[in-house]
Design goal:
- 64% of the residues lie in helices and 3% in strands.
- It is built from 48 helices and five strands.
- Strands 2-3-4-1-5 form a five-stranded parallel β-sheet, sandwiched between helices.
- Mean pLDDT is 86; it is low at 222-233 and 664-668.
Length: 913
């Protein structure tokens, strides 16, 4: 048997009393303590100790359900003795004395230990008999040890008090010291625990053996957990709850009510407030608190605190559902009427199923406001959802709750916010109320609303009239509504083409003094950028004006301002927007709400891509995806993620986007970014024809939706490159020329340089090299290092193929350095490969890697034979020709027919049959 840690003093005193009894000087000892103090564990060690000291043991354990059984405890003690039948017949006065004499005579022959646990539950006749026996002990060879649980109602009964007062000594079991806890941890683990574990166990248990046992059960002997990881295992937790629940149920009603009140209120409530909730006066509250402390359930100190979380849980579980509902509702009312913070009262209302009184809705709305102010939108949403249960099913009051709920959910659950917003707009009774509600709706949410809601917003805007004819709040609402309706138009056909006209109507310096004016100007600038009805320089000037008046705050994601970063990226004006977004990002991270963090991460991904910093752009894109961006991404934000994915050539990221983002229902009128993704995957996998069809499909949709600006998505550039690799040179040149013409009209170096590079790639000979030189010069000081590196790589390869090794190597080294600086490894790898094997020394080996069919097709293509003619000459399908060419390009490390020409002397030509 393991030693009983921390109770050796008590065992020594009892052993001394046993030795005294053997000499004819019996004694009474009382062991007292609250629940879980280890009283019963101590008493269970005494029979073995008595046997060592030569005493016979008589034991009895009292129970509440046996208190009405007369002489039940005496029967447990004496019935095991030979020749004694305590309860047959039922003892009268003579039998009472006879049993005392029997013990006296029996102990004269063999010393006795009379052991009674939980004396507070003994039946009254047995208590009287034990009291009489205690008076005779000084002349008997008998030791009597009784255990009393403090705090139980019976512990204060006069017979029990009389016995404990006669005891000498009275052994009150204190909490275990930290040294004992340390020894118990070592016993449990099989090795000394670390100080953090020991401190955590001592703090979690307060030195109470019952709670310490539960804490130790959380420590695995083989793999000790950190000291703070003391989650009690479920089986142990069930036993703990049962003991505590039984202990509470045996208490008088005032004690039970105070325990439940303390469980319902937070720990800082204080005894006065808990007493009011328990419907006790000051004296009654103090007496009930004393009982709970004696029972070992409350800590010492002025504030009433439970010694362990399990006590709170047991107090809550001891209530019936009706009692639970009543006490939480009364607690909420008490806190509300007492002027306590609204969130304290609202926390009580969250625990009830009905909140139908006006004051409950008022409390919950006030709590939601407080939660939003402290940056806890999810808590605010919980309060408002509960308030909806108590509101009417229709009317302005419910609409106001729905709008508040949507505002709280927009940072964490945009889809839920959209549902509640839609419901609110249809419930508001007056046009003015609908106007104000719609005006504060985030544009990205409104753009996803069902048609009836959009129609309602349009009707509201029409009812308000022209913003230029309004003043004050109505004017601001009208401007915001116009911005939102034009934002919706940007995603499809219709009004988008009129954005530039509306912007020009506002004058050369459109007013941007109010947030509503800045939102409208931002949407108009975006529409003018998409349709390319303004030059980049003019767009950049106006966009930077707006940016100067806007604080860098995470809340900008719920306005039209995310379009501002897209406009400035397209205009290649990145100086101000970069620091602005970084400040907004840090504030969003501090707030922790996922939606602002995801939107800002997407904006930063777009910005870094525009700078050519691909690794940083991918990191921001991954962050946005990790925050759930694909579940509610807008067309613009999704397009930004797609652009990063396409440029990084990351099929894993592309498939992730395709798997989680839903196709918009009307993508015939909206350019679907998913088409670009599918095309990107097909191109990386070598299926150039399929890739081309996807890109062209996107382009057709973009043209229908009036998305004309090549700075946003250079689809013609991509399609021209695919045409070139498929041997369809004229189509490639036509698209490249059109792209370059539009790029020149827009007027930004990167857009023009990208189009120029494609023209140079498609054009063979010296003219192609000259176009690439012009492109490199254009991109040399541009904001996009990646585009410059791509041009240098292509130019270097073309120069090597033309025999201009010195200049070619200079260009390739520049491409490698630029690619490494901006984090584009595939460009750096290709440049390094070319530099390691210049002047064509690799070409015979590379050509030898081709199959016979690939060499034949590549040879004809290198000599300028069109794909259709190759297919006829070799009697194969055009599809087969495309596949053989794609494989040859990959093995020869070339981008298309123009570079393939360098291998013409090593490949079979048209005359080779």
């Amino acid at each position: 048997m393991k030693p009983l840690r921390g109770r050796q003093r008590e065992l020594d005193l009892i052993a001394a009393a046993m030795d005294s009894a053997r000499r004819g000087d019996g004694r009474l000892l009382a062991v007292t303590g609250g629940i879980g103090s280890g009283k019963t564990a101590l008493l269970r060690r005494l029979p073995a100790l008595a046997e060592k000291h030569g005493l016979r043991v008589l034991t009895a354990a009292c129970a509440p359900q046996e208190q009405d059984f007369p002489f039940g405890v005496v029967s447990q003690l004496l019935d095991p003795l030979p020749g004694c039948r305590a309860l047959d017949p039922v003892p009268g006065p003579d039998r009472f004395t006879e049993l005392l004499s029997f013990v006296t005579e029996y102990s004269a022959g063999k010393p006795l230990l009379v052991l009674v646990d939980d004396l507070q539950w003994a039946d009254p006749p047995s208590l009287r008999w034990l009291g009489a026996l205690a008076k005779r002990l000084p002349g008997l060879r008998t030791t009597m040890v009784v255990g009393v649980r403090e705090g139980e109602p019976g512990a204060d009964a006069p017979p029990v008090q009389a016995l404990t007062e006669r005891a000498g000594p009275l052994l009150h079991l204190p909490p275990l010291p930290v040294e004992t806890v340390e020894a118990l941890v070592a016993d449990h683990l099989g090795h000394p625990g670390d100080p953090a574990q020991i401190a955590a166990c001592h703090q979690a248990s307060g030195g109470n053996p019952l709670f310490l046992t539960a804490a130790l059960a959380a420590l695995a002997p083989d793999e000790p957990l950190p000291g703070h990881a003391l989650a009690v295992p479920e089986p142990r937790l069930v036993v703990l709850h049962e003991r505590l629940t039984v202990a509470l149920r045996t208490q008088p009603a005032p004690v039970r009510r105070l325990a439940r009140a303390l469980a319902v209120l937070d720990e800082d409530a204080g005894l006065e407030l808990a007493g009011q909730l328990a419907e006790l006066d000051t004296a009654g509250s103090e007496e009930a608190a004393r009982s709970l402390r004696r029972l070992g359930l409350l800590t010492d100190g002025p504030a009433p605190r439970f010694v362990h979380p399990s006590v709170r849980e047991a107090a809550e579980e001891s209530m019936t559902p009706a009692e639970h509902e009543d006490v939480h509702l009364r607690a909420a009312q008490l806190l509300h009427s007492g002027g306590h913070p609204a969130e304290r009262a609202a926390a009580q209302l969250l625990a009830v199923t009905s909140c139908h009184e006006d004051w409950t809705v008022e409390v919950l709305r006030s709590a939601a406001t407080a939660a939003r102010r402290r940056g806890a939108p999810q808590e605010a949403a919980r309060y408002l959802r509960r308030a909806l249960l108590g509101s009417s099913s229709s009317g302005a009051d419910r609409a106001a709750l729905l709008l508040d709920l949507a505002a709280s959910e927009r940072d964490t659950d945009p889809q839920a916010a959209l549902r509640h917003l839609s419901q609110a707009l249809l419930l508001l009774p007056t046009p003015a109320e609908r106007a104000l509600a719609a005006a504060r709706t985030p544009p990205f949410l409104l753009g996803s609303c069902p048609p009836p809601v959009i129609d309602t917003v349009a009707e509201v805007a029409a009812d308000l009239g022209d913003p230029d004819g309004l003043t004050g709040v109505e004017r601001q609402a009208a401007l915001r509504l116009e911005a939102r309706l034009r934002h919706i138009a940007v995603a499809g056909p219709g009004e988008i083409g009129r954005c530039a006209e509306r912007l020009r109507a506002l004058g050369g310096m459109p007013p941007i003094h109010t947030a509503a004016e800045r939102e409208l100007v931002t949407v108009l600038l975006h529409g003018a950028t998409v349709t390319q009805q303004m030059a980049a320089a003019d767009v950049a000037f106006q966009a930077n004006r707006v940016l100067q008046h806007e604080p860098a705050a995470p809340s900008h994601v719920h306005t039209a301002l995310p379009h501002l970063s897209g406009v400035l990226v397209a205009a290649e004006s990145l100086e101000a927007i970069g620091p602005w977004l970084m400040i907004a990002r840090e504030r969003a991270r501090r707030d922790g709400a996922p939606v602002p963090r995801a939107v800002i991460a997407t904006e930063l991904a777009h910005l870094q891509l525009a700078r050519g910093r691909l690794q940083e752009a991918r990191a921001h894109a991954e962050e946005a995806l990790g925050l759930g961006m694909t579940e509610w991404a807008t067309l613009s934000s999704m397009a930004a993620l797609v652009m990063v994915t396409v440029h990084s050539r990351d099929t894993r990221l592309a498939r992730r986007l395709l798997a989680h983002h839903r196709e918009v229902a009307d993508h015939d009128f909206r350019p679907s970014p998913l088409q670009l993704l599918r095309g990107s995957v097909a191109a990386v996998e070598g299926d150039l024809a399929t890739a081309l069809e996807y890109i062209l499909d996107w382009g057709r949709s973009a043209e229908r939706a009036e998305w004309r600006n090549p700075a946003l998505v250079p689809w013609r550039t991509w399609a021209a490159g695919l045409y070139h690799r498929l041997g369809r040179t004229q189509q490639a040149l036509d698209l490249a020329d059109e792209e370059y013409e539009r790029a020149v009209a827009w007027g930004t170096p990167v857009t023009m340089g990208r189009a120029q590079r494609v023209k140079g790639a498609v054009t063979a000979g010296e003219r192609g090299i000259e176009l690439l030189r012009e492109c490199a010069a254009l991109l040399e000081d541009s904001v996009n290092t990646m585009e410059a590196a791509r041009t240098e790589l292509l130019l270097g390869r073309r120069l090597l193929a033309a025999g201009r090794h010195a200049e070619g190597e200079v260009r390739l080294r520049r491409a490698r350095d630029q690619a490494l600086a901006c984090g584009v490894p595939w460009i750096a790898e290709r440049a390094s490969r070319e530099l390691a094997d210049p002047a064509g020394s690799r070409t015979p080996v590379a050509v030898a890697a081709l199959t016979r069919s690939e060499r034949r097709v590549a040879g004809l293509a290198a000599n300028g034979v069109p794909n259709k003619d190759i297919a006829e000459r070799l009697e194969v399908s055009s599809r087969a020709v495309e596949k053989h060419l794609t494989s040859a390009y990959r093995k020869l490390h070339v981008a298309g027919r123009a570079e393939l020409a360098a291998f013409s002397l090593l490949l079979p030509g048209p005359a080779d049959g």
